[in-house]
């Protein structure tokens, strides 16, 4: 009898589930989550023994051969020693006091340098004015009635992309100095170079082939370092070609010596023939 009484209770549960519209929950067998095994830790790697850094073997330094100091030959007051290509004294040359013993005029030196630099300017600077700038010459709008500022063309300097007012134009900056003033400035520059001890006179350079190495060794024997002005009377092409690849060296003819080069180069190397021509040219 007890079992028969339990049956209607189950039916009542089913009727309640139908009335609510939900299916009765069924209890299934409980599933246990699989146990995840922790990954086995790897044994730490043994540290490699630190290798000592071995410095690369360097070649033994060779002792640099120091060049012997060149001999500077002295001469009597108002004279200069003439040496050969091996820096051996040959003779002495008495300088003309009218060329190498004049009072140094600083203002003349300034004027000569300024004139030299001005003559070297190209003067190719230029800007476009309203006649050269691109754009139409048509009046953009009528003069009155628009409420805008009056304007004649879009090339006006007041507008963007308009012409430039009073801009630079190509011109020639060169000008001439009086011949006597130019010669006096050169005498002052030569006097200063002689007083500073930068004048060297060589009997002859003897450059027969265009070899830079030959001319460089000649300058080393003379003890010349830095900027150098080498003066020769009518220099041959071999001397010009040998000197153009030496930095700081300028080879000029005796008739092309100027104040700027003499002041710019602390060393003045002159051949005996070029020295005679200079004195003959500059003697007042």
Outline the structure in words.
There is one protein chain. This protein has 284 residues and is an alpha/beta fold. It folds into 2 domains: 149 residues, Ribosomal protein L4/L1 (Ribosomal Protein L4, Chain: A), CATH 3.40.1370.10; 50 residues, no CATH class. It is 31% helix and 11% strand. It contains 8 helices and 6 strands; from the N terminus they run αββαααβαβαβαβα. A 6-stranded mixed β-sheet has the order 2-1-3-6-4-5. Strand 4, helix 6 and strand 5 form a beta-alpha-beta unit. Helix 5 packs across helix 6.
Chain-averaged pLDDT: 86
How do the SSEs run, as a string of H and E? HEEHHHEHEHEHEH
What proportion strand? 5-15%
Overall domain count: 2
Oligomerization: single chain
CATH architecture name of the largest domain: 3-Layer(aba) Sandwich
Number of strands: 6
Number of helices: 8
Spatial shape: flat
Low-confidence blocks of residues: 1-5
CATH class of the largest domain: Alpha Beta
Task: State Rg.
Answer: 48 Å
Short description:
Helix content is 31%, strand content 11%.
List the helices and strands and how they pair.
Elements: H1 2-20, E1 79-83, E2 89-94, H2 97-100, H3 106-119, H4 179-195, E3 199-202, H5 212-222, E4 228-232, H6 237-243, E5 249-253, H7 259-264, E6 267-271, H8 272-282
């Amino acid at each position: 009898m007890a079992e028969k009484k339990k049956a209607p209770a189950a039916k009542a549960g089913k009727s309640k589930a139908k009335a609510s519209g939900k299916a009765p929950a069924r209890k299934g067998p409980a599933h246990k989550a699989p146990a995840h095994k922790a990954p086995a830790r790897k044994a730490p790697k043994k540290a490699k023994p630190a290798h000592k850094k071995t410095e690369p073997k360097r070649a033994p330094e060779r002792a640099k051969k120091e060049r012997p100091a060149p001999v500077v030959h002295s001469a009597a007051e108002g004279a200069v020693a003439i040496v050969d290509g091996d820096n051996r004294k040959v003779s002495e040359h008495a300088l003309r006091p009218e060329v190498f013993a004049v009072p140094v005029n600083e203002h003349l030196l300034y004027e000569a340098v300024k004139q030299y630099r001005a003559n070297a300017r190209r003067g190719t600077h230029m800007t476009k004015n309203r006649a050269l700038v691109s754009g139409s010459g048509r009046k953009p709008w009528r003069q009155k009635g628009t409420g805008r500022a009056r304007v004649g063309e879009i090339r006006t300097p007041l507008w963007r992309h308009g012409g430039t007012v009073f801009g630079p134009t190509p011109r020639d900056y060169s000008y001439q100095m009086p011949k006597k003033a130019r010669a006096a400035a050169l005498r002052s520059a030569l006097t200063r170079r002689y007083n500073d001890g930068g004048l060297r006179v060589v009997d002859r350079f003897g450059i027969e082939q265009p070899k830079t190495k030959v001319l460089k060794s000649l300058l080393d024997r003379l003890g010349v370092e830095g900027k150098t002005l080498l003066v020769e009377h009518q220099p041959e092409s071999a001397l010009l070609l040998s000197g153009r690849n030496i930095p700081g060296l300028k080879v000029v003819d005796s008739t092309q010596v100027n104040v700027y080069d003499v002041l710019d180069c602390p060393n003045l190397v002159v051949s005996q023939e070029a020295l005679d021509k200079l004195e003959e040219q500059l003697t007042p």
